[in-house]
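Researcher: I'm preparing a figure for a lab meeting and need a structural model of a single chain. I don't have an experimental structure, so a prediction will have to do for now. The sequence is pasted below. Please return the structure as tokens so I can convert it later.
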Amino acid sequence: MTSPIVRFAPSPTGRIHIGNARVALFNYLFSATNHGRFILRFDDTDFARSTEEFARAIEVDLAWLGIVPHETFRQSQRVALYDAAAAKLREAGRLYPCYETPEELEKRRKMQQARGLPPVYDRAALKLTGADRERLEAEGRHPHWRFKLEPGVVEWSDLIRGPSHIDCAALSDPVLIREDGSFLYTLPSVADDIDMKITHVIRGEDHVTNTAVQLQLFAALAPQAPPPVFAHHNLLIGASGEGLSKRTGSLSLASLRDEGYEALAVAALATLTGSSDNVHAVRSLGDLARSFDLAHVSRNPARFDPDDLSTLTHRTLALLEFEDVRERLAALDVVGHKAEPLWRAARGNIWTFDDILKWRRVVDGEIDAVREDPAFLAEAAALLPEEPWDENTWAAWTGDLKTATGRKGKTLFHPLRLALTGEQSGPELAALLPLIGRAKALARLAG
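Model: Understood. Here is the structure written out token by token.
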């Protein structure tokens, strides 16, 4: 395979949700696996709803996932390209003006359905004469422009769905340009794909029908160039089977980030859900890319349960090495010679990254020590070794305590944990004790 060029083309009309992230991740991981290029392309030709604020928010969300595009484009800055494409289609007789109002079109659809016919546009506008069009425009009507589909079946080999086809007789000629002259999604997308030499279009299966129209557009605009290879993946649905929507904020990346979930956990769950691969924690997007394969994607809907993110975040944090999180720890002021051993000790016992602050407080701050058995704790304090301490100090100390008191198991260890950390459970005390230090340990044991 030649190095692929892929794109993620969100509309900056809201915050992206986990379903949008799935599309971005599929494209990014596919390009990374095959040493290709990933383009971020904002579909912002809907000038009324697109905002720069949402565009910036999408870039922030992608960066949080670890996705860094090779290039970024805005379709609002490329209108000349789309005007040229529209002119070429007009010259070829493939783009024609229509003057029906939405109400008139809806009335026709209902009449067709009542007669048992498919609600396909009847191409009445093709029968208009020049005089007819002048009269309609004199009445104040402005045309919208439809792409004239050629009859027949459009076939393609889908990287996920396999051999696929759409009979264009079942489709209406799509509107490419609105009455106000603005472009709908389809024409700018194809014109950009041609101009940017996109090799693979990886997207949700809700776009399958669009593929027939777009393949005809590719053939009309660039007959000598091969069209992209298409791959349509299953869609993420919510835990209760509901669809996801930017407009309702369903599982937005911003909300998942605010709830403390790890970006790598979100990426792994969004990517591996609905595939033959088991959902598992990863240390980097590179690790995820090495196991990513479009052939493993299922044809069934992929149910995304955010409750799974908590466990997966916990497992992800346990995988991360100190170098992976050094800067994040510094941002929380977890620095100095204790930072690395603290992370190694605590990473398997935290459920969000900020939980590390609790264990920093245990080793460096003040806690509410729990002294269940003061007499035993006094004896433990008397046997506490002198420093320096290392990872063997805990075993040596508790071994002496066991000999002196006859205690073992929970009756030996649990009172010590409560007094030293104030917690019922947590990291291995063999790792924590040298970080707490003798002075704090004595104070917590003695009360």
